[in-house]
Amino acid sequence: MSSSTAELCEVAQQLTAPGKGLLASDESTGTIGKRLAKAGILNTEENRRQYRELFYTADIGGGISGAILYEEALYQSASDGTPFVECLRQQGVLPGVKVDEGLVPFGEVEGETETRGLGGLAERCRRYRRAGVRFAKWRAALRISGEHGPSEAAAQRNAEQLAEYAAVCQACGLVPIVEPEVLIDGSHGIERSGAAAERVLQACVAALWRSNVVLEATLLKPMMVMPGADHTGSCAWPKEVAQATLTALRRSVPPAVPGIMFLSGGLSEEQATVNLNEINRAAAASGGAPWRLSFSFGRALQASVLEIWKEDRECVAAMERARAMAAALAAANGAASAGRYEAGSHPSILSGGGSLREAFRGWRAP
């Protein structure tokens, strides 16, 4: 093993440290703007900086091993002048970055997409590496629709793009997070979701092999297997989600991959934590899993923080409460990644634990 490959594998091991996961705070300017607008906050660079500061200066190191940043945030600083990248490093949190450039329509099936950003990717990755970044993320979005969706063409196209991205990242010294998100949009049941997850994951792994990507220095970021958000049948309890998810992973992902970092995909803050906890408990009860089963949550680590901050953004005490919430959410999910979350102890303040589903996760015409 070359020294560069060994270094990448070491970073992957740090990102999958026991009891820790990833903070996905890489929302594009447009996406974060929609969330700020919903909270009654203008989408300005300074407001985005202040919001990000709540997380990067909070005491999150106990439950967070890495944070995925948007490019803008890489070059922003806290109010005291400390660069965000340094704020994270001081807590032992590795900085990462989103490198894709968003979704565009693909093929003839309505709603199917591919991802932009391969052009100039190597140059961007080298620049990010010089800025202190140690890993990257690329998101593909696949939709279950029609009889068998996603289509085979869409699954293969996105798998090839993910593999090309991963190979470029590793050549530039970055660990790739490979995110083939199967969207929760739709009325399908959990069985169909599981079948789609298996096809998508298997296509991704095959493409990674063909592209000579080092699996030991690659992390996967899939959605948990669960029914579509508009499914009208019986709900899927955490134990059912856990079994369906583990079945799909065991049929699709080789042990060489060190970590599965689940996205929360629109689940409430508490439900994402409960499901993750149950997945880890089910894995332990059935003899363990070859990969670390952890998290790369965005909304499920942020929604309550924004709820607190929006009430009085000029109040120091409110900012401290928001930071404390960020730390508490990180700790709860860190515990769940080890199967040690205690039911009923979730710090979320959102009443009813409602869904955080967003209608703009896939591609929408401008």
UniProtKB/TrEMBL annotation:
<keyword id="KW-0324">Glycolysis</keyword>
<comment type="similarity">
    <text>Belongs to the class I fructose-bisphosphate aldolase family.</text>
</comment>
<dbReference type="InterPro" id="IPR013785">
    <property type="entry name" value="Aldolase_TIM"/>
</dbReference>
<dbReference type="InterPro" id="IPR000741">
    <property type="entry name" value="FBA_I"/>
</dbReference>
<dbReference type="GO" id="GO:0006096">
    <property type="term" value="P:glycolytic process"/>
</dbReference>
<dbReference type="GO" id="GO:0004332">
    <property type="term" value="F:fructose-bisphosphate aldolase activity"/>
</dbReference>
<comment type="pathway">
    <text>Carbohydrate degradation; glycolysis; D-glyceraldehyde 3-phosphate and glycerone phosphate from D-glucose: step 4/4.</text>
</comment>
<protein>
    <recommendedName>
        <fullName>fructose-bisphosphate aldolase</fullName>
        <ecNumber>4.1.2.13</ecNumber>
    </recommendedName>
</protein>
<keyword id="KW-0456">Lyase</keyword>
<dbReference type="Pfam" id="PF00274">
    <property type="entry name" value="Glycolytic"/>
</dbReference>
